[in-house]
Design brief:
By secondary structure, the chain is mainly β. The protein is built from 1 helix and 12 strands, in the order ββββββββββββα. The protein is 11% helix and 43% strand. The model has no long low-confidence stretch (mean pLDDT 96). The chain binds thymidine-5'-diphosphate.
């Protein structure tokens, strides 16, 4: 999918001393990091996300346990399982996302390219499809 990809982070260390992963803005993470937040203590049956962003870029990293992320660009849908500390999922603008399969031990870390702005959210799926259509018209 064009606006989403897995990023493999470089681990420093070994099994004898443990590992360290360093993430720098505009390097491993393909944007300037302006905000960091994390989601935790989410009951198994709960779905989070259920929105897209107009401009925001994010990288999602599962810090503990595993979680599934459904991504949808309006044409193609994909399910990605995040369960590894050295993998991040980059999600660009105009991607509908749903996070599920949590559990009390799951911690999902999110790095974001901008401050929180409710006006950047599209929380209605039909509105998202309209947004994609308009975007495609202007870009062709
Ligand atoms: P939301 O992004 O909808 O959460 P999720 O995608 O995990 O389901 O945000 C949930 C609530 O938290 C919503 O009321 C907005 C608020 N919020 C902030 O105040 N600041 C933030 O940085 C984020 C991400 C959310």
């Amino acid at each position: 999918m064009k606006n989403c990809r897995i990023i493999n982070f470089k681990k420093i260390g070994n099994n004898d001393v443990g590992f360290l992963i360093a993430l720098e803005g505009n390097r491993e993470v393909p944007f300037n990091i302006k905000r960091v937040y994390y989601i935790y203590n989410v009951p198994k049956e709960i779905k989070r996300g259920l929105h897209a962003h107009k401009r925001l870029e994010q990288v999602l990293i599962c810090m503990s346990g595993s979680v599934k992320i459904k991504i949808d660009d309006g044409n193609e849908k994909k399910i990605i399982e995040l369960n590894n500390l050295n993998k991040g999922l980059y999600i660009g603008p105009a991607i509908w996302r749903e996070m599920y399969g949590f559990g009390k031990s799951v911690v999902l870390l999110i790095l974001a390219s901008d401050y929180y702005d409710e006006n950047d959210y599209i929380r209605d799926y039909e509105e998202f499809l309209e947004f994609i259509k308009k975007r495609n018209l202007y870009s062709s």
